[in-house]
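Let us work through a complete example step by step.
Step 1: write down the sequence.
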Amino acid sequence: MFDFNFEFHNPYWLLLFLVFIPLFLLRRSNVEKSIVVPATQGMTESTSAIWIKRFLHFTKYMVLAFLILAMARPRTFTVSQNEDPEKGIDILLAVDVSLSMLSRDLEPDRLSALQRIAVDFVKQRTGDRIGLVTYSGEALTKVPVTTDHQVLIEEIQSINPLELSPGTAIGEGLGVAVSHLRTSTSKSKVIVLMTDGVNTIENAMPAQTAAELAASMGIKVYTIGIGTNGLALMPTNVDLFGDLVFTETEVQIDEPALLDIARTTGGKYFRATSNSTLQQVYQEINQLEKSQINSSKMYNYKEFYIFLLWAALALLVLDAFFRWWIYKFIT
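Step 2: predict the structure and record it as tokens.
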């Protein structure tokens, strides 16, 4: 990360510009008191000589200004911040995208509420690598763990419940997430596993097997059961126009399995029955998993005083030359 900045290293030298005020006042007073002597009556000066004399009246002020600016040492600098990636946390969000995630017991539905809160969570984890796995009847790694959080946020916002085969295979979702984190070099690896149902795929990897694999690799799993207690409007059918039909259905979440996964891996199980409780869950996980990022800042300066000194020297040379030229060939 780089920041561009400008500063005067010794800004107090700029106060010397106040000296210009009495100098200008003194010069104006001298001009008003001067007496025109008609010794050169009838003689005319060339236009170039007139402009050179006017220029010479201001060279001393310009030289002084350049010297003051040089002493103030104007400079630009960039700040580069180096972070040790091994001090951050690798986090994988494993999201259930089965059709039941469109249930309307959260506002406006479970998936939309999850997307908004997950995006807020990602924005707070600036020093961590985060990825995304989606699963229903099968599992897919949508985004490998990355520090490019904007790409991740876009993928979270575009989650589609219809892109994978139907069903709920919690063990498959967890297994794919574990497999991805297997090669992680981070000292802390975390999976946030979210589901709103029970396992419905018989030949899929058992959730407990995936949990044991995670534990053997030092991966901590936080599990979240999403859904109210009781009944919820769930998509249960499709009408002739291809629209989902919602009916009141009993909410079923395999809480014992989610609790076992969390306990096996040293994580924690949460139940989110509303938008506010889901947000609280993410806030608590955010507090439990604190990154310890050791960052160092490097300042790279580019000084400009040397250019001002060369400008002052050039003006002094021009001033000397023009004065010699005027007094040599004109006076």
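Step 3: interpret the result. The two ends are 63 Å apart (CA to CA).
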